[in-house]
Structure formats: C-alpha cells, structure tokens
Amino acid sequence: MKAHLTRRYHFSASHRLHSDAYTAEENQAVFGKCNNPHGHGHNYVVAVTLAGEIDPATGMVCNLGDLDAFAREHLLARFDHMNLNTLEPFLTLVPTTENLTIEVNRIFQDFPFARLERVVVEETGNNSFVFGG
Ligand SMILES: Nc1nc2c(c(=O)[nH]1)N=C([C@H](O)[C@H](O)COP(=O)(O)OP(=O)(O)OP(=O)(O)O)CN2
Ligand SMILES: [Zn+2]
C-alpha cells in the first residue's frame, strides 16, 4: 500500500534580489525594495511531500527521523542563518523563492528512503512557491 507524507522545516536566511545582467537602475525597477544592498531576511517554511510503499514491518513510508537527519545535514546546515547570496547556487542565480524551491527539490531528490513528490517553500505568510505535483 502506497502513501504520502509531508514534513515541514523552518529556517531563517537573508537575501538580496539582484541580477548582474541588469544595471543599478534596472535592478531597482525590477526588484524594488528587495534590491536594497543591505539585504533583508525571511523565516522560510519548507514542506516536502514524499511517497512510497508502507513498509509492513514499520508501518511507515519512511522514518521521519531519517528524513529529519537528512534535512538537517543537507538543507538546514546549509541555509539556516545564512546569507543566500553567498551560497551556491545563488552566486549566479537570483535568490528568489522560485529558485530556492528548485534547489530544495534538487536536495531532496537524493533522499534515499522515499520518492520526493512535491516541495512548497513559503517565503512570507503571503507568498508560497510549489515545485512538483
Ligand atoms: N516572484 C517573486 N517575487 C518576489 C519574490 C520572490 O521570491 N519571487 N521575493 C520578494 C522578496 O523576497 C520580498 O522580501 C517579499 O516581499 P513582499 O512581497 O513585500 O512581502 P509580503 O508582502 O508577503 O510580506 P511583508 O509583510 O512585506 O514582509 C519580492 N517578490
Ligand atoms: Zn525577500
């Protein structure tokens, strides 16, 4: 029997929306207040949904302890209390939440015990971005 599980993770990070492809004026016109050189922060909420067969012995799609350990190592240790602009892949990509959602999706593709189906990243209470089903 197959099932889905969703787990939420929280981290705080700063960023500045800025593109080297634009002049200072164009950056200001496109990104507005988010182009402020001092940057600003968000309390991001990441929800990952995974799918798999329920193991008859454990009754689980995957052990949340394994998923948490993976998230700590590959997501939270990388991004929590960091400036996203200083980290790959945002050295060359604008750290919008769309691009962050794609990176989170890439990270959890490597989780070995269940298949990633969907990633949602909430930037503020008003903005959330979805990758996948
Ligand atoms: N398509 C996108 N547009 C914007 C993004 C983004 O990631 N993708 N990000 C931002 C900024 O990060 C910005 O900080 C969000 O600001 P704003 O929309 O003003 O935030 P809220 O109104 O939701 O909440 P506040 O009360 O202002 O914190 C902008 N655009
Ligand atoms: Zn922002």
Automatic annotation (TrEMBL):
<comment type="similarity">
    <text>Belongs to the PTPS family. QueD subfamily.</text>
</comment>
<dbReference type="GO" id="GO:0003874">
    <property type="term" value="F:6-pyruvoyltetrahydropterin synthase activity"/>
</dbReference>
<dbReference type="GO" id="GO:0070497">
    <property type="term" value="F:6-carboxytetrahydropterin synthase activity"/>
</dbReference>
<dbReference type="InterPro" id="IPR007115">
    <property type="entry name" value="6-PTP_synth/QueD"/>
</dbReference>
<dbReference type="InterPro" id="IPR038418">
    <property type="entry name" value="6-PTP_synth/QueD_sf"/>
</dbReference>
<dbReference type="GO" id="GO:0006729">
    <property type="term" value="P:tetrahydrobiopterin biosynthetic process"/>
</dbReference>
<dbReference type="GO" id="GO:0046872">
    <property type="term" value="F:metal ion binding"/>
</dbReference>
<keyword id="KW-0479">Metal-binding</keyword>
<protein>
    <recommendedName>
        <fullName>6-carboxy-5,6,7,8-tetrahydropterin synthase</fullName>
        <ecNumber>4.1.2.50</ecNumber>
    </recommendedName>
</protein>
<keyword id="KW-0862">Zinc</keyword>
<dbReference type="InterPro" id="IPR022470">
    <property type="entry name" value="PTPS_Cys_AS"/>
</dbReference>
<dbReference type="Pfam" id="PF01242">
    <property type="entry name" value="PTPS"/>
</dbReference>
<comment type="pathway">
    <text>Purine metabolism; 7-cyano-7-deazaguanine biosynthesis.</text>
</comment>
<keyword id="KW-0456">Lyase</keyword>
